[in-house]
User: Fold this.
Amino acid sequence: MLERIKNLLPGFNCGNCGYTQCDDFARSLINKTENPSQCPVLLRPSYSADKKAIEEMLSKEPAFHPVKIISGVIDHYLADIILHPLKNEKSCRETLLPFSSVKVEPDDVIRYRPLGCPITHIARVIDTEHNLITIVIIGPQTTRSTDATEILDLGICMVLAFQGTYEGRSLKVGETIRFLPHHCMMQKVHSGVVVNLENGNVRIEIIDLKVWSMPEKSGYINRHN
Ligand code: SF4
Assistant:
């Protein structure tokens, strides 16, 4: 159903629905967190047949439809969900515990390497509280377009939590899951515990890049299929 809805959306990627890509809006429709009328383009008379077709499809289906298998690219582990950005954000959020004493404030741009990950990330700070830093990823490509002196170097940070919207099977608070952050440059499956579920958003804590076995019940979408 996801592919059919993607094909019926206008494809302008204009962002007026609050999502930067029509594909992300399509997922929010399937998750029942948004409705087709939130796309102003679909409200035009020339798109009324497409809007009606989408509404008919959604009315017949419950939320969260497994369609394919999810797996990481590096280790090929299966995952329960793909984690996408919150509405109006560019990547899902990460909560960091820095080991450095560099002071940061909201809107600062930082460079850090997550403990256990070989890739240096560039991110914008959203919030700081109790020595924890909440960020959204904006790089590494930003290093080419941003003056390096404007980037605060935090060195290695422990990633404690992820937050975003999700695509995949239904989740329960308290369960341990495997997930694939959509922005992960290595497309590596992470694990963690679901601590909050609200309106299609999930917060996952105790993040681990070491993922153990591959239970057959798990798995949903391989975004590279
Ligand atoms: S408003 Fe409509 S056309 Fe624009 S990005 Fe959202 S779904 Fe796509």
In short: Residues 9-10, 12-17, 19, 22, 25, 39-41 surround iron/sulfur cluster (CB under 6 Å). The first strand starts at residue 81 and ends at 84. The first helix runs from residue 2 to 8.
